Model the fold of this input.
Amino acid sequence: MKRLHGTMGMYASPAAVKAVLLKLQDSGYTHYEVYSPFPDEEIDELLPGKTRINWVVLIAGLCGGAGAYFLQWYAARDYAINVGGRPIHSWPAFIPVTFELTVLTAAIVGVCALFWFTRLPRLDYPTFHDPRFLRASQDRFFVCVRADDPRGSTEQTRQLLQPDAESVEEVYT
Amino acid sequence: MSTPAAGSLEPRREPIIAPDETIATINEKISRIPLQRPNPRFWWIGFGVGFLLLMVLMMAVGWLFIRGVGIWGVNIPVAWGFAIVNFVWWIGIGHAGTFISAILLLLHQTWRTSINRFTEAMTLFAVACAGLFPLLHLGRPQYFYWLLPYPDTMGLWPQFRSPLVWDVFAVSTYATVSLLFWYVGLLPDLATLRDRAPTLAKRRLYGVLAMGWRGDARHWRHYEKLYLLLAGLATPLVLSVHSIVGMDFAVAQLPGWHSAIFPPYFVAGAIYSGFAMVLTLVIPLRAVYGLKGFITDRHLELMAKVLMATGWMVAYGYFSEFFTAWYSNDIYERYVATNRMVGPYAPAFWALIVCNILSPQILWSRRMRRNSLVLFAVAIVVNTGMWLERYVIVITSLHRDFLPSSWGMYHGTIWDWATYLGTFGLFLSLLFLFLRFLPAIAMSEMRNLRLQTEGGAK
Done:
């Protein structure tokens, strides 16, 4: 059975989206989605919350580096090669591999974190059912007020989304 | 030349996107290449040549697997022949891609936007070609995994104090991070291709590759941050990779190699040869696919300037090598320097000086920098020169080191050349497949750039 996902307006410019977002926030809406064909700083500033992906990348990098250093330290003892009494724990020679594995771990975990935070891959999503949404990846901006918003996705919502929109339609799952 | 605009301290700049390109034309012109496949004749000829050369590679590698590295010209004392020359050459080419996509991003060089996707692809394919050589050179390539630290039954570990082991980690990290960076950058563009796809099959193909990317503003937030972080990680990475390649030589005791200038000089040389390769590829492609509105003459001029700057750094490297050889007062160092200039490999040495130091000097002239034919010619000459440079470094130091009784000569055999030419086949085949299936310019970044430049004009 088709269920209402929300009411979605299509906009031609980031400026129109910003105007709508301010109105939505003034009226107390919280459950809405914004779609843009490229990242826009000002839209981003209007949305609450922030990303924690930088912390994930930092911690992953530190773990990767520490692990790599430990690996080399362990290997140097496990199969000790004594060259004229030079120290077994020859830390300067361990730096390059430590650095490389820091970067490698940080990058791999960072990309995994991107998919975790965005809940992707998810090939189907209600907004894709709207034929207008083909332009979301090209040249149009969308604001979708979800039906699960406490204020609901009602005729009033449509009024709010309408003024700058090129069109406003209901989106079903 | 550039006059300041009224009321602004910024000099007026030539636009980096042609003014008649809009968001609609950006989408249309870039996605047309994978979706509608214009200019099939050019594509088939290019791919055909690449594929033929790839078959040459297959043959050379097949014969190598049957007969062993004896089919190559390597011997004692010159145990590092073409394999290392080609490895360093290809990986150096790759570095321009990371330089453009990561370092220029951090430096806010917006002109990088129209070439970063393409050059990142170039990086990946160049690294794939580079990676082949050390593996084939192992002699018993089936045991390549001995280079990795794993709990083996022999109780052995890789020698972590050796730059050759650092290289294994550096190159594999570089390849992986470049691939991730490239794929993350591709996600929004794959979504665009999905939404513009004319057939269901293409829609599904790009849909799966795009992983359901829908351009949610909250997703963009994570995405942007990660992209910046990856650029920040790739920046020291690219410097480290070629420094480590330089240390493969510099840590050895051999005269001509044992030099502190090697890591920075190799990095400069890498970026130099990489920009030459970018120009070699971009000049014909922008003409064939009608992308001159995105990759403008200003882009070519800027790349020509990078070419000149890094060319001078390389020239300084050469100077420093000879200066230290003289100043060290070490007979072996001095002999290697003399041997380079007048020994049996002198023609290669002087050719590299002409190619790498003299030829780019023509770019002092602005008219020449904007002439794509001249630039194309210079780029090819520099590519050749950089190959000769590595050849001279590898061969002249090895073939006559300390003991005259152990001196020898080295020449590549037909199988050396076949393997080298064959990697061009691998590179070209991958490049043409990339052009056919993926967007060669980052559309989402171009749309953003277009809007910003419009905003600036208001």
